[in-house]
What does this fold into?
Amino acid sequence: MKRVKMVLAYDGTNYCGWQLQLNGITIEEVLNRTLSELLREPIGVIGASRTDSGVHAEGNVAVFDTENRMPADKICFALNQRLPEDIRVLSSEEVPLDWHPRKQNCVKTYEYRILNRKIDMPTLRLYSHFCYFPLNEHHMRRAASYLVGEHDFKSFCTTRGQAEDTVRTIYRADVVKEHDMITITVKGSGFLYNMVRIIAGTLMKVGMGVYPPEHVEEILAARNRKAAGPTAPARGLTLMGMEYETELKKKITGKNRDWEYQLIQTEIPEKKKAYLFINRCRQEDFEGLLARVTHQAVRNGARQVYVCDKEDDSRIVPGKNYGYYQFSYGHDMLAMTKKVSLPQSSPEEDMSVKQVFQGVWEKVSIWQTSLFCSIYNQVFYSLPNSATLTEKEAREYLVNSRWQLFLIKVRDKAVGFVILVEKEEELEIDSLGILKEYRGHGLAREILERTEMAAAGMGKEFLSLTVASINTAAISLYTSIGFENKGMTSRWYMTENDYEKEDS
It folds into this structure.
């Protein structure tokens, strides 16, 4: 058994769309029949995009499984000899048996073509929509820009669409006019039923002057199909292609006027963990956002997802279903502060950090970022919600004058680290860590005492830090040297169970 991936081009004029129908012939039906005849076994293809009746494609994708020994890359040539002239397989190749065209992260590109002239051109009638009314492509382009980003596109979805979640991400939306042809290009992570055609119909209304360009924002906010323009005819739409992601995105950001979040995925490859920070979100969108982004992380390989709702930590209810997932309380992050009790130095005294830690603490240079990150990630490997530090992130800290990164050394061997952040009245310990085999010897206590000396030398009134509530050993240490608990800064929840990669 092998799975074969095909890239397809077709003229959709004579077909009732991609998906099998009772009322007419479809692309899927023709492919199934022709492949079955060629390979002499029952074949059922799985398509990436179920294009509508009359819609064309230059780069749709489909897969099928076969026992036939014909080389995968040769199937396209043999198949094209049997297919009608309006369907062609552009390439064929073997892929893993679990590779599914609709369950991969990909970017789809559609084009909608409008022939904008006084009289129609018969040779273009099947591949463009004719509009005799003069369209202002500049206004259309400006209107299209409001669609870029992550939004709820419910206003741009036919009401009989089956999607429960209508949030999609548009990476590019542009309008270009060349001679009499206006081309609308939309590139996104996915599309709802008739979404691109409704976008085209709406932009045409803008081009006619019916709507001002900024009205598109109001249409998005309405989340009502009646607020948008008409559905443009199918013949003008072509699926241009699909770009499948080969590398996992380390960070995904969603931001619009209704919500803002970050999904950190740097630890998925090794630890199977992901971290979701919800900075803000409308109450009515919260449950959908939590379920949607958690599901995305799980599909990308996460088996545990940690969530921090920075706006309202009470909105996540343990045991409640959010889509496929439930969450349980994980821990709190606590703020701890200590008033610097050591005498502050006079201007004549040099109590710089460098002097205080000379021989024990070495400031990280650009050439030591790899070593620093290695120790950092070893220390925090098993702790919850401790994201991996990359060399790029470390270098960004180094060029910021407010941040100071140090390696802790014992007999010239780097055994830990500390990161300090200078603020107006305080010196903040962003993080402090000692390798496991060097703990229990008072090294952390010594570093904290020296940090207080440095804070005094810098004229700071307070020394501050944050610590996880479950890190009882660290809390005990901080308390013993005078740090006081000032309360919770954030609350973390985590998915109830480890999840294998979702197939849904």
Q: What stands out?
A: Residues 2-95 form a domain with the Alpha-Beta Plaits fold (CATH 3.30.70.580). The mean pLDDT is 90. The first helix runs from residue 27 to 39. The CA atoms of residues 298 and 474 lie 31 Å apart.
